[in-house]
Amino acid sequence: MTAVTSVAPKRGRNVELALLMLAIGIIVVAYINVELALHGSLPPDLLYLVGGVAGVALIFHLVLRWRASYADPLILPIAVLLNGMGLVMIHRLDIAAGRSITGGLAFKQLTWTVIGVVIALTVLITLRDHRVLRRYTYTAALGALILLLLPLVPGLGKSAYGSRIWISVGGFSFQPAEIAKILLAIFFAGYLVQTRDVLSLAGRKVLGITFPRMRDLGPILFAWLISIAILVFETDLGTSLLLFGLFVSMLYVATERVSWIAIGLTLTAAGAYVAYLLFGHVQRRVLCWLDPFSPEGVDQCGQITTGLMGMASGGLLGHGLGQGRPWLTPLPESDYIFPSFGEEIGLVGVFALLLLYVLLVERGMRTAIGLRDGFGKLLAAGLAFVIALQVFVVVGGVTRVIPLTGLTLPFLSYGGSSLLTNWTLIALLLRISDHARRPVPDVDPADISSDTPTEVVKVA
Amino acid sequence: MNTPIRRLSWLAAMLFALLLIASTWIQSFGAPGLNERPGNRRTLLASYNVERGQILLDGNPIARSVPNNSEVKYQRVYSQPQLYSHLTGYQSFIYGTGGGIESAMDATLSGRDDNLFYRRFTDQIMGRTPTGASVELTINAAVQKAADEALGNQRGAVVALDPTSGAILAMVSHPNYNPSQLASQADGVSTKAWKDLNADSTQPLQNRAISRLYPPGSAYKVVTAAAALDSGKWTKDSTLPGPAQLKLPLSTSTMANSNRQACGPDDKVTFLVALQNSCNTAFGWLGMQLGADTMRSTSEKFGFNQQLDVPMTSAASVFPAEIDQPGLALGGIGQGNVQSTPLQMAMVAAAVANKGEVMKPFMVEAVRAADLSELSRTKPEVLSRAMKESTATQLNEMMQAVVTNGTGTRAAIPGVQVAGKTGTAEHGKGQAPHAWFIGFAPANDPKVAVAVVVEDGGRAGTDAYGGAVAGPISKAVMEAALR
What's the CATH number where B434 sits? Predict the structure, then answer.
């Protein structure tokens, strides 16, 4: 017993620092690469830029040492690397489009990055224990609902690219659904931790699978209806899929019952089919998914086909940053940033990017497994899975695995709301992972009230 | 809760595996197909950044790329754009490649072809600027020019072949167009030209020589005659029925000769004279006697019912899969549902000239690297044997009679024995017939085989007869080829 406790637990902060240096090194090389390819010389602002990025990352690192010293050491470097690579690509597309440094999208993205990091640090500093969030279960639900409905408010919401998912305040555009996904994860975690027993035990067995009672179906039907409502009124297939997928997966984690997945998939299939029958834009998406090169597809699927051609022209190794033609694809810096990378850094490069996401998701799942409280487990698993799901919906859409829906790729795509949300999400994961990896659990009133009191066993 | 979390991780891993597989497919195995898709701007833009290969005629470029002072590094220049429009085709910055060698040999010209892999690799290692390969054509400039001038402002097409190899010596389609306008990078020039050309009802962008199907009319009687002679039941001296009118079975209509008279005394005519004077009733009768299977298999041995890559892909000439007795009578004289490209009819003449063997027609003589060293050369290939050698010998003699004493005297060349067959193809009530001539020369040692079609009788209009309208064009082309 004493032998075990005497081993100093690994915090991993030095590993994190080394990985951060590596991430910053890669970003700087990529930036120099772009500048050399497009301007033939080293960028004059190189030192400022390196200093700025390294400074932001370093401050984040120091705050972790101070406030979450046991946090997972891989999460921050991955987020920094993805965010930085996104900035490099957006900067490269700015140059191609003839936008100046200050008037360009990269500058805005950089601003949003700083804001995102500040918010993330605020969360880390003020939120000392993630279990506090459980108190705000229903507040989060209300907040999410309001955010989701905001784009429908006349005068506030606006339509872009065929979807009404934006709100516009004082010249700033914002996608509230992005933030709603974190609030919903908090709500689902809080709600399911309370009700998991009744949801997982009561029910009737049909064909070996236990199906829930009708009255317990309420929440899943409610979530489904919200998703459908988003689809119908805001015509946002991607968010609708994302939120419903998040709910079903968390429901499964809470109850361990496969029947929930079966019900979820059935509802998704039914909803998707009805949407296909009712809406022209859904039919068009399906056509462009199944057969974009067909005679009727050629006129309508230009985005997906040029994206595919961009990736194809990149081949295994890519043209090199700054040497392809990613601007030929519409929206090359947001929804289609993945093909932009495919064209310039090749299959090898997109493999690396996807594996970064795999690692990030895996660290989140590991955090969930390492935790002792049900709420934290559900929240961490939900947040990790929502990253996986979002990457799948976006990249799967552009690579024709599933119909194209239109979401941002976390950290890489241009978009303020997306960056803010994902940095907040990272802050939550870091906070939870700090708790999960801390060797001796603090005895804490909140812990007693959680659902696993039997685990708090103190010997001597 | 750890078990479902582990399972959820596996699910996430599988989702990512799907993305990895899809990306791998798109960027490796599926990439060549996507890169070659028509309308791929990236491939087009990339092709403008390497010096595209030339299209050469006897070593002289008829299409070449010259350096440009703009963002696009090269500009395509055509030396005689109208004359060679249907051979070169065009390379347009907006509309891609099309219309001829530019698109059919695009991979070679732009240097993307897999056969050029080694070359590309060594170029990179040696630090040479990669360039496309050049394409040398079999076209003979003099013959092409003669065909173009003889056809003049009439709509139609001319094809001249070397019957012993299948090499295409001339290919003219009128009206033609100016590919330089489509290649222009000046503002609006190519878009205007493209719009005008596509709106033009005479379809100048279409290469009539290989893409348009015409009823071959009496020129097709050569095929019917080959089938009949090959069967062994008839020789050139056999007697055939040749009444003024032939009653068609299963219908009330009749087939008549063009002069409304019988082809010979007692409604009888020898095979040779029947061809010489283009006796419809005799060949209608032969078509029915030979039957659908024989007629179809002979036609297909000449190349009907298949597309050919010369390397531009030709339309498949048609002998119908289903044909009844009246249809066979009409088919025997090249009417009804029988349709042919001018290239196919040139192959018919060439087959007789080449003792019964049809050579595969081709237009690319050789592919050359930028330093003009030869990368590959086309070897003549036999496409099929259309008829026995003895049949070809008899048919040669019969076709000589057409030019010496028959309907084709206008194609005769002093001092050269020419063999040929005329055609006057009806294609709808009230419309002037298409004028045809197919033939070869010199008859005893053929050097050139020709097919000429002039749409709607050309300048002669409704008074057109194949021999009178198309014969002189063939004469001009043959003279140029034999000079």
Answer: 3.40.710.10
Q: How many helices and strands, by DSSP H and E, does chain A display?
A: 17, 5
Summarised one tens digit per residue, pLDDT across range A79-128 is 999 999 999 999 999 988 888 878 888 888 999 999 999 999 999 999 98
The span from the CA of B82 to the CA of B86, in Å, is 8
Does the residue B345 lie in any domain? yes
Q: Does B41 touch chain A (CB under 8 A)?
A: yes
The per-residue pLDDT of chain A, averaged, comes to 85
| Residue B31 forms contact with A (CB below 8 Å) | yes
Residue B42 has a CB neighbour count (10 Å cut-off) of 22
CA angle A192/A196/A199 to nearest 5° reads: 115
- Which residues in chain A are contacts of B15 at CB distance < 8 A? 388-389, 391-392, 396
Residue of A nearest to B20 (CA): A351
Domain-located, residue B244 = yes
Contact call for B6 and A369, based on CB within 8 A:
yes
A131, A378 contact by CB (below 8 A): no
Tens of pLDDT, residues B341-382: 999 999 999 999 999 999 999 999 999 987 778 889 999 999
Interface residue B124 vs chain A (CB under 8 A): no
3-state secondary structure (DSSP) of residue A382: helix
Interface test with A, best of B3, B18, B26 (most A CBs within 10 A): B26
Domain that holds residue B320: 215-364+382-482
Residue B75 resides in a domain:
no
pLDDT in tens, A307-346: 999 999 998 888 889 888 898 888 888 889 999 999 999 9
**Band of residue A1 on the pLDDT scale cut at 50, 70, 90:** very low
pLDDT score of B473:
96
Site of tokens 């957006």: A90
Q: Is B30 at the interface with chain A, CB within 8 A?
A: yes
**CA B225/CA B391 separation, integer angstroms:** 9
**Rounded alpha-carbon distances, angstroms, from residue A240 to A165, A227, A236, B15:** 11, 5, 6, 18
Count the domains in chain B: 1
Is B15 within 8 Å of A369 when comparing Cβ atoms? no
Instruction: Identify whether B243 is part of a domain.
Output: yes
Q: What is the DSSP letter of B29?
A: I
Q: Is B375 helix (H, G, I), strand (E, B) or coil?
A: strand
